[in-house]
Design a protein that fits this description.
It is a single chain. By secondary structure, this protein is α/β, with parallel strands linked by helices. It has helices spanning 16-31, 35-42, 113-120, 146-159, 172-183, 208-215, 221-228, 234-243, 254-267, 272-276, 298-306, 322-325, 327-340, and strands spanning 60-61, 78-82, 85-93, 97-101, 124-128, 166-170, 190-194, 284-289, 310-315. Strands 1-2-3-5-4-6-7-8-9 form a nine-stranded mixed sheet, with helices on both faces.
Length: 344
């Protein structure tokens, strides 16, 4: 089926803003007894110092950007120039380098404190905003594309002096990661992709009814959570709600919403990731929720068959927010994978 006749891609993560706005009061109510605060505090990463490279000195700190409370370990947002834009990022934890790439118009604040603190126990973690999102600027004179965001990611890795980091990407971030692995294999040492696809004619797109609901401005927070989590994942939903607001939210403008939507649509006809992935020798961990309504899990099988050094793990009874829903197992899987790949 040609890309022009396929179901339009769903805008996966912009609706997280709706979910946050809808359930934020619930999150405050849940935290009033201090229950989740204690849990998050107990899972904070080590504060062991990590060497700062000389190139990092070119960055600047954004005033008043450091979270308080359970998210304090994240530290302030810093900005650094990369290929004509300024990228906002945070760094924390200790260990081998891990860079995390967020999905469609998602921001750094859309990662959960629980996930980040667990990863920070094992890795020196870099999280950042894609171009036009949150603290990162954009150049609107050029079309936004996934290959361009892959270039941005590689540029940030170089600017920060990261030493062949593992790249972990969620949703569109997983697709950016796959594109980095295909087009810039020397920039990273390993890839963890969850909830992404290879684009082009080989992608299995979101079912039409789900895409319509995701793209509709009328979709409510509870409806969005229904798409991210299976119906019986009550505990995971509650835990996710409790995490909201622990990292100060960031803004995403309408222009960026449109530009990243267009970038995802353009990925429908981009065959570069598919074409070049077999030549990549990077070890890859391809994960997906078996009940993912947004990115059909068949995509994970397509990726694993196409890549030469990929292993597939499907999470049973998990949806698109699998890495949040089954956070402990996911982090354990990632750490075992990187150690097996010789990354320590």
């Amino acid at each position: 089926m040609s890309a022009s006749h396929r179901t339009p891609r769903a805008r996966t993560l912009p609706r997280l803003a709706v979910a946050v706005a809808t359930v934020a009061l619930g999150a405050v109510a849940c935290s009033s007894g201090g229950g989740h605060t204690a849990s998050a505090s107990s899972s904070r990463p080590s504060t062991s110092a990590t060497a700062v490279t000389a190139t990092t000195a070119a960055s600047t700190v954004v005033p008043n950007s450091a979270p308080s409370g359970p998210g304090a370990f994240l530290g302030p947002v810093r900005r650094i120039p990369v290929d004509g834009i300024s990228i906002g990022y945070r760094q924390f934890g200790s260990g081998p380098d891990l860079i995390m790439v967020m999905g469609d118009t998602g921001t750094m604040s859309d990662w959960t404190v629980n996930l980040l603190s667990r990863l920070g126990r094992h890795y020196h973690v870099t999280i950042f905003d894609n171009r036009g999102v949150g603290y990162t600027t954009d150049d609107t004179s050029v079309p936004d594309t996934l290959p361009l965001m892959a270039d941005d990611t590689v540029g940030l890795i170089k600017a920060l002096g990261l030493r062949h980091p593992t790249l972990l990407g969620w949703s569109m971030g997983g697709e950016i990661g796959l594109t980095v692995a295909a087009l810039h294999p020397g920039a990273i040492s390993a890839l963890v992709s969850t909830g992404g696809d290879l684009g082009g004619s080989q992608a299995i797109n979101t079912p039409p009814a789900v895409a319509k609901e995701l793209n509709s401005p009328k979709t409510t927070g509870p409806q969005m959570l229904d798409l991210l989590f299976p119906a019986d994942a009550t505990a995971a939903r509650t835990a996710y709600i409790e995490q909201l607001g622990l990292i100060p939210p960031e803004k995403v403008g309408n222009e960026t919403l449109l530009r990243q939507y267009q970038a995802e649509q353009a990925y429908d006809s981009f065959e570069g990731t598919w074409d070049e992935l077999p030549a990549s020798t990077i070890p890859m961990l391809i994960t997906n929720g078996s009940l993912d309504k947004i990115t059909p899990p068949g995509n994970a099988s397509v990726i694993t068959q196409r890549a030469k050094h990929a292993q597939l793990v499907l999470f049973p009874d998990a949806g698109h927010a699998m890495l949040v829903q089954d956070c402990g197992r996911f982090v354990s899987l990632v750490t075992r994978f990187t150690k097996a790949s010789g990354i320590e």
